[in-house]
Design goal:
The protein is mainly α. It is about 75% helix and about 0% strand. The chain starts with 11 loop residues before the first helix and ends with a helix.
């Protein structure tokens, strides 16, 4: 199989990218990025439908399809999905740490703040970081 070269031990995001690279190498691929985006939208709609149904197993399955199709779209745009997600993890962490520091300066534990109060500092962090 074309997929035999994809190690089972890879993290799921990396594995999805490698699977898609492998199958694209033998011609099983979309022709244009807009086709991939249409697939992403289709998968999002299927996911929304399962969320409304409340079936946890079906929701997880469809969420996986959304992620898989997003990884494929990233490949079409020459974006490394692992790097993109890690970049967002770091950005989120910096912003959240800013929020924590600001909460300390007003002597208010995060758990005692409203989401609206936290959002003020979050928006500040977005401008600064």
């Amino acid at each position: 199989s074309v997929l035999e070269g994809v190690p089972k031990s890879l993290p799921a995001l990396v594995k999805a990218n490698r699977i898609q690279e492998k199958v694209a190498g033998v011609g099983f691929d979309w022709e244009a990025p807009n086709q991939v985006w249409e697939k992403v939208e289709e998968e999002l709609n299927e996911f929304k439908s399962e969320v409304q149904s409340g079936n946890q197993d079906a929701m997880e399955s469809e969420f996986g399809d959304v992620l898989f199709s997003m990884v494929n779209y990233a490949r079409f745009l020459n974006i490394n999905p692992e790097n993109a997600l890690e970049r967002t993890n770091k950005k989120f962490s910096k912003r959240f740490q800013y929020l924590e520091e600001k909460a300390k300066t007003i002597n208010k534990p995060l758990k005692d703040m409203t989401l609206a109060e936290m959002d003020v500092f979050w928006e500040e962090a977005k401008l600064l970081l």
